[in-house]
């Protein structure tokens, strides 16, 4: 819904400019188009149109995009026409919501952070929401998402998670430990690969590798150029995932669990053509992705099991307040 700019006549006969705006309440997708000459008029119209009780005044107007409080008429007029505002009643806090009908990050099938700068700026809030719903989902995040949480100022992340700065600092330290653990695993895998390469030079693995390459060449000879292009077009992986597979050492440690699952579901031959790899290397990487995915899921299940056990062992509040007395021995 858009509102065109107008002017209206005052009692003295003068005309004053009106700025078209879009209004909605917090946690609502329903938007209302209004035109106002100043912030005070926009607040007044917000109370009427959005049916905000006068007892909830004062009304605060914030930008729907990032929650910036608009408290100055000069800044109000610097904003473009049809700017989206959220009207907050007293003691109400702004919460990010995709008012265009999108869903939360946890239910999205994909999220391309390269589309717009504003999308990249809000990514850490989407990741924070996922952690707020289930802290154990930290295990499922990609290294990029983990780094985003570390780079966010502690005060902003604390506000988003409704936690103290001390608790958020501990969370960021935990995130850093997860990143460090993955880096240690990557370095260990690289050392192992160097050791295997040394064995290949001695001839212990060279013959098997040559046989695998010969078999792959025969398969490629049976496929013409046109069918190769068709195979590449069937690859459902994003460019971001393909880049990680090509350039990252131990790429399974860099990807999110959702991306790991997509890699394991790819046809090995199609993925090999896309990455310009031999089939043996492709299958090895897919197996590593599958193992990493299973490990993360097992960790999630273990955490949930511990939570259930802890919940069963914790006595109800009434038992803590009124403990039963032990029965006396009648003798």
TrEMBL record:
Residues 168-202 form a coiled coil. The keyword Phosphoprotein applies. Residues 17-96 form the CIDE-N domain. InterPro entries: CIDE-N_dom, DFF-C, DFF45, DNA_fragmentation_mid_dom. GO terms for cellular component: chromatin; cytoplasm. SMART domains: CAD. GO terms for molecular function: deoxyribonuclease inhibitor activity. Residues 306-331 are annotated as: Disordered. Gene3D superfamilies: 3.10.20.10, C-terminal domain of DFF45/ICAD (DFF-C domain). It is found in: Cytoplasm. GO terms for biological process: apoptotic DNA fragmentation; negative regulation of apoptotic DNA fragmentation; negative regulation of execution phase of apoptosis. It holds the Pfam family CIDE-N. Keywords: Acetylation, Apoptosis, Coiled coil, Cytoplasm, Phosphoprotein. Heterodimer of DFFA and DFFB. Inhibitor of the caspase-activated DNase (DFF40). This is DNA fragmentation factor subunit alpha. It comes from Chrysochloris asiatica. The lineage of its organism: Eukaryota, Metazoa, Chordata, Craniata, Vertebrata. The gene is DFFA.
């Amino acid at each position: 819904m858009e509102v065109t700019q107008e002017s209206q006549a005052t009692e003295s006969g003068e005309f004053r400019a009106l700025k078209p705006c879009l209004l909605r309440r917090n946690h609502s997708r329903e938007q209302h188009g209004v035109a106002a000459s100043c912030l005070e008029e926009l607040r007044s119209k917000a109370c009427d149109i959005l049916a905000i009780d006068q007892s909830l005044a004062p009304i605060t107007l914030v930008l729907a995009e990032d929650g910036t409080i608009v408290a100055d008429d000069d800044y109000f007029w610097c904003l473009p026409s049809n700017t989206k505002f959220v009207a907050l009643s007293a003691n109400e806090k702004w919460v990010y919501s995709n008012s265009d009908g999108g869903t939360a990050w946890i239910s999205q099938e994909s999220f391309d952070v390269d589309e717009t700068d504003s999308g990249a700026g809000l990514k850490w809030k989407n990741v924070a929401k996922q952690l707020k719903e289930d802290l154990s989902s930290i295990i499922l995040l990609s290294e990029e998402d983990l780094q985003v949480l570390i780079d966010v100022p502690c005060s902003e992340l604390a506000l988003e998670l409704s936690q103290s700065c001390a608790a958020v600092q501990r969370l960021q330290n935990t995130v850093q430990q997860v990143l460090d653990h993955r880096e240690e695993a990557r370095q260990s895998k690289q050392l192992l690969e160097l050791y295997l390469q040394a064995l290949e030079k001695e001839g212990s693995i060279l013959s098997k590798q040559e046989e695998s390459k010969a078999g792959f060449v025969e398969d490629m000879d049976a496929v013409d150029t046109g069918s190769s292009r068709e195979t590449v077009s069937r690859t459902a992986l994003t460019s971001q995932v393909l880049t990680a597979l090509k350039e990252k050492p131990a790429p399974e440690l860099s990807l999110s669990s959702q991306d790991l699952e997509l890699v394991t579901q790819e046809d090995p031959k199609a993925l090999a053509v896309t990455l310009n790899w031999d089939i043996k290397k492709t299958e090895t990487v897919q197996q590593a992705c599958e193992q990493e995915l299973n490990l993360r899921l097992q960790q999630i299940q273990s955490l949930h099991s511990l939570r259930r056990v802890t919940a069963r062992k914790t006595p109800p509040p009434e038992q803590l307040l009124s403990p039963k007395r032990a029965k006396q021995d009648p003798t």
